[in-house]
## 1
Amino acid sequence: MRIHTVLSVIAFGATALLSSARADEGSGIRFNLSGFANITAAKVLSGTDRTYMQWHCPCAIQNWEYVGVYEKSRGWQADQESLVGLQGMVQFGDQLSATAQVLSRPNNFDYRPTIDWAYISWAATDNWTLQLGRKRIPLYYYSDFLYIGTAYPWVRPAADVYGWPVYAYDGANAAYSGRWGSMTVDANVWAGGFDHHNAPYDTKIYYGAITNEKWESIFGGYITLTQGDWSTRLMLMRFKDTVWQSPAGAPETVFTPGYSTAIGGVSVNYDGNDWLLRTELNRFKQSVSKLQYDYYLVGLGYKWHGLTGIGTVSHYTTKDVGSGVEARQSYSLVLRYDLNRNWALKAQYDWSKDKTTAYTFFGDHKMLSFSAQTAF
Amino acid sequence: MNDAPSSIRRRLFCAVPLTALAALAQADGALAAVVAKESKAPAKLSAEELSAIFLGTAKSFPNGEKVIPVDQRAGTEPYSGFYRRVAGKTEAQMAAYWSRIIFTGKGQPPQEVGDGAAVKKLVAANPNMVGYIEVSLVDASVRVVAEVK
């Protein structure tokens, strides 16, 4: 019932916007409405028996941003990663546009729609575009379209790589798109910050009490070079990280008071007629705390008519500074079937080994996922 | 998603005289990339140039003139045939490519304007446009810049 209400609100709002924009078409204003949805059902088959935070394991954390967790004891679950998003864009002439993307997902305030994007865009030249507002941080290859399931082969990109408390920023960016000879170039530099109160990643996975995190003085950039079937992406971002708790009636506790942090990554991908290769190698490094994460994924796939199969290995580990590590090694086998141009059906089998030694984390798991994903 | 695989590109294209198109019209699904007769577009476009224009990575013809690509209706044989030959991608793969572009705020796909006749009519009246039509539809109102077979 609740999801229906939410969808109705989204649809009503979008329709109202669409109607008003259509009324102005004569004055050069154009409106585009697009959307996406993932309907994902998954079940943990086996794993480590233990209780971790609020979860009865065997369990699998498959989304770390808003915390989507599957528990074996709950059988098949479709309420952890299913989501729907709508994007409206109003174009004012050839150069200026305004875009907003609204997303409704289960563990993010119980399906309450939230704004992932909201920005104005000015196409300064054929190659340069300036944008101002809220966008997802384009950290890794799939970060800024993490929920557009039709754009990648998996049910979801490897959680060992795609899991951070802050995934958006409020600020400005300059995007370059063009060709250098026969090479396609896509680049972006961005600056801003984000204040995430009661960040689910911190609150639910690590602290067990309401915890806030803000990333300030974000400055980052990436460049993707594509030549034929190969593309290479380089990314570097710096920011100041603050994690704190403000319990009622108690003094504020600050865990990381603005520590300088850097994240860097390289991704090399191949997309041939038959074979595809996906690789990512990244590092997160923080001063003072000496916290360091290293993480990667490697996937090799094959396309055959409307079918794509891909096997992937992913891994992350913290640096051992004397008290052990948090680490995980995961594998997945995926079969994607393109039902038509708008729908992809996917099946994914995961097995993941918890290699954490610093504390008792959520353990191993094997799980099966099915997902119907669309973009329209 | 990447640009057209080089193996696919090599199978394409050359600009061909109008008179030579008659024989090609018999070829199964042969298409011609066309511009307006008075367009300032180059005499011919290479496979890479055509691919870049329709995938949105080139906003201008190689000579610097602004270019606006237009599509036939998605779901039709000309649409799927064009992208299969130009970009080496199925229709679903093209939809995946554009969904990534659209939802990261990097652009919009070419406007779909209908069938080959509709594309020809629109292109013929707009010097900055480029479209693709069935070879059998080519007439004096448009100029062929590449043949796609």
Note: The longest strand of chain B covers residues 142-148.
## 2
Amino acid sequence: MGISLNNINKSYKKLKAVHDITFDVKLGELFGLIGPDGAGKTTIFRILTTLLLPDEGEATVAGLDIVKDYKAIRNSVGYMPGRFSLYQDLTVEENLTFFATIFGTTIEENYDLIKDIYEQIEPFKDRRAGKLSGGMKQKLALSCALIHKPKVLFLDEPTTGVDPVSRKEFWEMLKRLQKRGITILVSTPYMDEAALCDRIALIQDGRILEIDTPAAIVKKFPKTIYNIGANNMYKLIQTLQGYEHTYSVFPFGEFVHYTDKREAFETQDLKHYLEKADLSEILIEPTQADIEDAFMELARK
Amino acid sequence: MKRFIGFITKEFYHIFRDRRSLFILFGMPIAQIMLFGFAITNEINNVDIAILDHSKDATTEEIINKISSSKYFTIKQIITREADIETVFKKGKIKAVLNFEKDFSRNLIKEQKANIQIITDATDPNTANAITSYINAILKNYQQSKNEDIQQPYQIIPQTIMFYNPELKSVFMFVPGVMTIILMLVSAMMTSISITREKELGTMEILLVSPLKPFQVIIGKVVPYIFLSIINAAVIVLLSIFIFKMPVEGSLFLLGAESVLFIVCSLALGILISTIAETQQAAMMISLMGLMLPVILLSGFIFPISSMPTPLQVISNIIPAKWFIIIIKGIMLKGVGMAYIWKETLILVGMTVFFIGLSIKKYKIRLE
Amino acid sequence: MKEENVIEAEDLTKAFGDFTAVNAISFEVKKGEIFGFLGANGAGKTTAMKMLIGISKPSSGKATVAGFDVYTQHQSIKKNIGYMSQRFALYDDLTVKENITFFGGIYGLSRARIREKRKQLVAELGLDEISDKLVGSLPLGWKQKLSFSVSLIHDPKIVFLDEPTGGVDPITRRQFWEMIYKAADQGTTIFVTTHYMDEAEYCDRVSIMVEGKIEALDTPKNLKQQYQVNSMNDVFLKLARTPSPTLPEGKGENTVIE
């Protein structure tokens, strides 16, 4: 009785935003929708929160149909749209009170749910929301979405544009919420956050590339990835792009992630090839693929 | 220099590719010139007048015919007693009464002069002046034509009475009108901006995905502005009374009640605008351009509606301001009570209900 | 051969009333370097960058960019640098070609040179099919790549990139960085701010700003060694949490107005 989507399609004017989206989110799951801008994440959220009608397909949220039972859904879900959508000229406390009131509850009634989140911004409760930093706005928006104890929580890119420290803290808060039995659907463009979800759906250009647990997706990665390092990153990339056996070469931090067309090969051969191109300090070693590698491989097709 | 030209070229691209700015550049001026041209006129046409004829003889009949056959006047009513003059003015349709004294013809022949009163509703002093001059001209003309073939010239002596506004103070005309315009603009603009702001900031999304019903959002947006606009209206009335020395012949309470009605009507109009406009800027543009200009021109507070071509007269009926100005002028200057303005009041009530109903219906419960 | 410094800042400060956004920062950037300028939102990155590109006057301190003084020669600075930001880069209601022509004109390129550049950019980015389409209709990734190329249209010595890859898909992001590498290889200095910590690894050197001050300035490798961690992300987390002489409690909670 979590969330389910079946064959959802939606177009805006001539542009098809999402194609044949089908997936389920189990009760109490922390599910991530991972993809870049324009992938269709926000469209899916708006359909599930009943703000948009799909052109085709059905979906349910907590067992309620998004078309027929939209009022019931709107009464019971928590929604945090992009850009945090808070009232900039109301204070922290006023914002929270407002959201509690329109959902027919009070701050005190469900305070235990938001306690460890709200505590961090409580010292600033008389400050206008517009004057908060990104990390604090994020915490306030989350508190406002939770104040009426929703069964399902929709968070659309809650960590975008926020510093890494706040991002990390935010996911820790989500994990704690999950323990209380709330079903959470989150979207994010940050691949490293994908690993923190129970299951994820990788999405690009309105289509789902893959759905599974992060571990399983990484395991499914068909090739062995090699970390290759050298003294000149740019030259290294150029040289590898000119190599006949290269399947893919992408910069990844201080190394390049390289995959070979062949099943297995001699790393020494590759090393010689690179040395011939005047590269030095060469390092070649196999490494574990991560979500980003998997995403890029799936997106290639 | 090249950079500068490059920049200008880009600006042209922006303008031509933005339909809204094209509309403002070309569409609006043309529409408004047409409106201005036809609506703005200091001439009078088809003004409704009444006749109080104590003589009912051949001369008065001739004069009455001459007046009725001119395009400036329409004889709408014949009254029989002096007391009816005020009644007829209170009703609002008649703008002037011609009062012929008894034995008009006989007086002309025997004493070479006869009297006629031109009594005008001077709550609109410009129109009153125009009416008086035109009637005087017609009388002079008649006098001249008659005097061509007799020895002793006749003299028709007109006495002008400016009812309600003997000093012809134009402030009597302007203050009600300006009060109406201000109330309408502020109310409509404020509510329309308030709603579109939520849309622009994205907080509308959250309101939609909540238990709040559409009518709660709409009425909720209107209520604070009702209180604030009432204060506004009170201040304007006080200023009019104490600084401009406007009279309040009628009931202050009725004035207050009608003002509240008009405020609610304007607020409802603002809500309606916000359901059409997507951004605050659009809301402001529609409120200012779409409301202000037509209201100023077609509400009748500067330019008499009766002088405008028929299509414009018909359009003026759907402008709430027109009805409210009749109501305010009636209460403040003529001292009328509900008996005389129930029709206008009912129309305003109907418009308010219509705007609110339509807004609730058009309130988008989804994002597209 | 001494590597020349294309950017030099000494005790550069910017204060708004009694709030100090940038607090006496000092650093240099060498020619051809890819310099990463990191920091949380509200740490002062954007304010500092605005001073360097000549659109904001410092409250005190010194700085030169491409040899020009930021106080007195900011017009010359603007002529000699390129700039691209995530928020705005190109005009959505102009076509690809029109945008290239416009920015070429702004930088004073001759008509012939603009034509040449236009052909070159369209070919390099593979935009032949869509060169007459409005930029607004392009996917985000193409827009970013095109903006970057346009920012280089006048062959500037330094190009300033303000969070250029926000929200872009992973493949395009890397293609973008390949373009950055190429430009750096050809001698253009790149000054880039980013939120993606893995992109910090691509830089030659990185500086991290916390509450108006530079708390770290070194190569990614050295920083990782210094803080005993494996990634720049962890360096950042450690930095924000470790009490340092200039950080109050190092709680990492930023309460500054953005």
Note: Chain A is about 35% helix and 30% strand.
